[in-house]
Amino acid sequence: MQKRNGTSSGDATFVVALTASTFLMGSSFVVGKVLLHAGFTPFILVGWRFLVAALATLPLAFLDGGARALVPRSSGLRVACLTVLIGLLQTTGVMGLTFLAMSSIPASTAAILLFTNPIWVAMLGKIFLGEALSASRAAGLLLGLIGVCFAIGVGPELLSGGNVMIGELLGLASSLCWAIATIINKRARLPLKPWTMNFWQMLVGSMALLALAYAHGEHWPDHATPSQWGWFFWLAIPASTGSFGLWFIALHRGGATRASSFLFLTPLFTVILSFLVLDSSLSLQQAVGGGLIGLSLWLVNRTVRHKASARNSVTVVPTIPTNIGETNQ
């Protein structure tokens, strides 16, 4: 009875942490869109967001492993270079391109495109890591590609060009950056603790974004209102550091593969919040595309979930450590 109650309690904690984490992740797209509408430029906004989030994460990195954990003894030039590369891909590439995309496309579309990541990971894993591609995963990839076509509206309007097409291509590019970072990490297996990895990749990525922004003459708005500051700190603390902490709890309780199967909740929350806050909605075509992508993610993760007890697997979410493995099944 005690074991059953413990399992039930663990499952409840997993569900609550996972739901709260994906809700906060989804809210970041909507809050970002609000601030972009208010005149904030993408790179300035994302750069300062993750610089503040990195500083908020630093005490947690200390608690996780002490001062030595920030630069482990086993670190060398290889670890440093790979950490910088992952930071540039995960924060500069993924989130910089996502917010740049949201300058011309809805937050919900950007979220759907970003969370096609498992599709590209499966494809790249087959090409570069020689990972097996079962029938269900192959079907998932095909459905995912069809879903992407529906979500971005492939047709004469898209092919004619314009800001919407550029935004959608940037959204896909952000997802590919995330997938490439995942593949690199699968090969590298860096000796960094989760909060330490999170701190370094946010710090590196945010500094790169701010350097690009100021080099192009961007600057923080001169007269940000109290409500805009409130939105910004929501973006930097609860929607960044807070969502990461809850994600770690979900990983600890349910394992990486089980948690990754529910990442589709993030774009779902983005769609709901976009309707409530931004008064926007998905077209029928985009809704069908999102549904196909959700089914695709289930199929792609299904094989991994069945095999998780036999070998470790790795899953990541944007700006969350890429070295979290399946250790708590």
Characterize the structure shown.
The chain has 329 residues and is mainly α. The protein has one domain. 77% of the residues lie in helices and 0% in strands. The protein contains 14 helices and no strands. It has helices spanning 2-37, 42-65, 67-70, 77-101, 107-114, 117-129, 135-152, 156-159, 163-188, 194-215, 226-254, 256-260, 265-278, 284-307. Helix 2 (42-65) crosses helix 4, helix 5 (107-114) packs parallel to helix 9 and helix 6 crosses helix 9 (163-188). Residues 308-317 and 321-329 have low confidence and may be disordered.
The gist of it:
By secondary structure, the chain is mainly alpha-helical. It contains 14 helices and no strands.
The SSE string, one letter per element, is: HHHHHHHHHHHHHH
List low-confidence stretches: 308-317, 321-329
Ends apart, CA distance between termini: 21 Å
Instruction: Give the number of domains.
Output: 1
How many helices does DSSP assign? 14
Q: How many beta-strand segments?
A: 0
Relative helix content? over 70%
Structural class: mainly alpha
Strand content: under 5%
Major sheet size, sense and barrel closure: none
* Mean pLDDT across residues: 82
- Silhouette: globular
How is this fold's topology laid out?
Blueprint: H1 2-37, H2 42-65, H3 67-70, H4 77-101, H5 107-114, H6 117-129, H7 135-152, H8 156-159, H9 163-188, H10 194-215, H11 226-254, H12 256-260, H13 265-278, H14 284-307
